[in-house]
Amino acid sequence: MRLFLYIFLISQLLNFLDVFAQKVIKDSSQINSVKWEKVEEKSKPLKKIIWRSYNNDESYFENEILKNKTEPPIWRNRILRFSFEEIDMPDAGEYMGLYSIGAYDRLNPWLYGGITLYGAATGSRGGFFTGGYTLGLERKLTDNWILDAGGYVGAGGGGAAAQGGGLMIRPHIGLKYDFNWSALGLNYSYVDFPNGEISSDAIALSLDIPFTSPTLNWEDDDLTAADYFGVDSNYLSRHRSHLAARVRAYYPSSDSKTTSGGSFDDSLGLIGVDYTYFLDNNWFATFETAGAVLGGVGGYAELLAGIGYRLPLTNNDRLALLPVLTIGGAGGGEVETGGGFVARANLGLEYLLSPDLSMIIDGGYFTAPDGNFDTPYVGFNLAYIMESFAQDQKGAPLRETDLIQTTKWRFRPAHQWYFDAQRKGGSTRDMQLLGGKIDWMGGDWWYLTGQGLSAYEGGAGGYSEGHWGIGVLGPSWNNWNLYGEMLIGAGGGGGVDSGSALLYKPSIGLEYHLNDDFSLQTAIGKVISKEGNLDANTFDVGLVWRFGTPK
Fold this sequence. Notes:
Blueprint: H1 2-32, H2 60-68, E1 74-88, E2 95-108, E3 111-122, E4 129-140, E5 145-157, E6 167-178, E7 183-192, E8 199-215, E9 223-224, H3 225-229, E10 237-250, E11 268-278, E12 283-294, E13 301-309, E14 311-312, E15 319-331, E16 341-354, E17 357-368, E18 373-390, E19 396-397, E20 403-404, E21 406-422, E22 428-441, E23 446-457, E24 464-473, E25 480-492, E26 502-513, E27 518-529, E28 535-550
């Protein structure tokens, strides 16, 4: 850790000196250099001249320029990161393989940050998951080699691991080789659970996939593509994406076992969320997470990623087949998934209800090769269809006259307290959770929300929740406004008495607007399990970031 600190300080010093040197060079070149260039004149036919009077108003021309000028969208440079590493566990000779999925925003040329999810894939701790936030620094050493250093703070656990309260800290430092379309990295990392027994260094292999996407102000709406993107509109294409709420029923085979060796007598019910992005008109990548709410396996969760193909069946594109292959991690709730690695093959049938909404019925087979859990399944998905814009020609072409609308979103990093949360065995204890919330704004006064939280303090390491629900916003008064939410979801693990894991979560809160983009929130509420004894008061504080995406 001391070495990490020294390298960090030295890299920042070098970065400062480089920036200062570049500024000096730039300033001196502007002052002292004069360049001459031969220009060949090419005559062009004159356009028709339109004469207008400006009535001796010298500000006329300035006003006309401002009137016709539109600010282009902010193209944000972003990173999708996958990684894998093996860490030593407290028991001698035991290890756990951790994979991760991270989505990061480049805050400036040398700083990035965002969300990271970790899950167990090898070993014997299937169901181990953590989620949190990563902040990193990059320093270009050569045209292709990049120094990368950063840290992760998150919460979670599971798989009967010795994670204590669930707080996870992971600093890293290493090198990346930039292939332009991706970057391959080799990092030294240190995984530590300060209030648990897991503490191990590791060598991590990472793959970064860069991409860009525009982020807009809420006020930007109903402009043409030319107004939004300017000359860039000729080089853009539209890519479909969707966000789906999922309900699934698993029917475990007779060979499937629990971690205690028992058999599954009933089907399992899961709810979750999925994000799908189309790479072109047919191929797509998908990312999903789900948790159990029925079947007596409270705490079972999945984190998956995969690839699929959309095959239209009708000329109007309303009906299509969706074959998909996914891999990832799953476990918890005493489901025997071994080290956690799972794979799934499924086939979906999509029907477009409207340009913005589709219904998908799917079925397939889910297996844990390293464990004893195999099951066919059927599912129902309700998807909200969006569009993303990319600086490529792989999606649908974009015309300059296309009208662009702004989809309004909010992201809310959050911290929650549960007071006297009921534990298995009859005891109660406070606990603290860390997580994030994403909101789709349906209007000025209501929104749909998806939320995920994990315990990091209070002796409940391994307890996690996932919810979706609806919220309402009250009228604003002096930058203040009331809001309320009603959530339904799944939660379990960490010895918390959540029963089957089906939870209800009502709350009411107060929001203070710092500016057009950010707010502070605080709320009180309750978390109530349907079949367990969990019935605790909650207190929530968080930050709100408002942003828009074009459609």
